[in-house]
Amino acid sequence: MMNTIKHKFVYAALLLVQFYLPRTCFSQNIDLCNKADNSSKIVVAGGSITEILFLLEKQKQIVALDVTSNYPNETKNYPSIGYVRNLSTEGVMSMSPELILAEDDIGPPSVVNQIKSLGIDFRIIEEEASSDGVIKKIRCVSKIVDKEKEAEKIINNQFKPQIKKLEKNRKKIESKKIKGMLVLSMRGTSPIIAGGNTSGDSYMHMVGLENIFKDVDGWKSITIESIIELNPDYVIFPNKEMHKSSDVNNLKENPFFKNTKAGKNNNFIYDDGMAVLGFGPRTISSALNTTKKILDF
Q: How far apart, in whole angstroms, are the C-alpha atoms of residue 157 and residue 143?
């Protein structure tokens, strides 16, 4: 029981660090999606890329993962290289990778530069926080690991129908001018919310919600007065386990929300943090499910 609670606390803390800190992004001049010469031993730094490799059934080629790679459950059986934004060259290279696949917020920069200098096939996958961006990421990774045909079949059969439904629902929600907010953390006296230029803001755009804090730049702590004044219709929490174990079990009566439309109507939406904010394969279905909850079907 204690190990389960500790695991949930660690996951919540990592989620907070993962999305709260500013991203340090790296660009590359080469075609980063070219097929790799050797993808037999892959080290992954980034949960969305791990999910894509499992989707493409390339998990047997993975030799190590970072700690944000926590889905599916089998990921817990792999060696860890640490946290994606705070890796060490020794930790990564000790896994003897033939290929390193990383999200674009990999760090620190000194380690990124060291690894690049070693001549290892090292791909930093560009991030675009949208449905199209998820598809582009899947296609890029599939090309690198020689799974293009399999990826296109999954995209056509699974993701394109979901995106079509999502877009239809998004337009309905936008037309109703429904307001929302996304809360990353309820720890302390002030919630940390998604302002503009965040993955949370992009997620709300995907589902058609107007982000009441879109004029706030980044992830910020806000006051109870600002929430009441802007009066959200819906509140999204991207980590239900974190909130289950906190002191906000009864959000409807929480002073931050009880005088808002969301609180009065119990309009709180929960989903896994990486599903909402990771912009991997699960983000499209997560967004679609959120639109269904908002439209009440």
A: 18
Burial (CB count within 10 angstroms: exposed 0-12, middle 13-18, buried 19+), residue 250? exposed
- State both tokens at 91: 């930790």
Q: Is the pLDDT of residue 25 over 80?
A: no
SS3 of residue 181 by DSSP:
strand
CA atoms within 13 A on the CB side of 90: 0
The 3-state DSSP class for residue 126 equals coil
Residue 33, token pair as written in the block:
């999606």
* pLDDT greater than 60 at residue 137: yes
Q: How many Å apart are CA 244 and CA 49, to the nearest integer?
A: 28
Q: Is the pLDDT of residue 233 over 70?
A: yes
Say whether pTM exceeds 0.85: yes
Nearest residue to 152 via CA among 109, 160, 144, 217: 160
Query: Residue 96 phi/psi, 5° resolution?
Result: 50, 55
Walk me through the domains of the chain, giving residue ranges and CATH numbers: 19-146 (3.40.50.1980), 171-295 (3.40.50.1980)
Quote the pLDDT of residue 118.
Answer: 96
User: Phi-psi category of 234—alpha, beta or left, where left has phi over 0 and alpha has psi -120 to 50?
Assistant: beta
Dmax over Cα atoms in the chain, in whole Å? 59
Helix crossing, 131-144 with 160-175: angle to 10°?
160
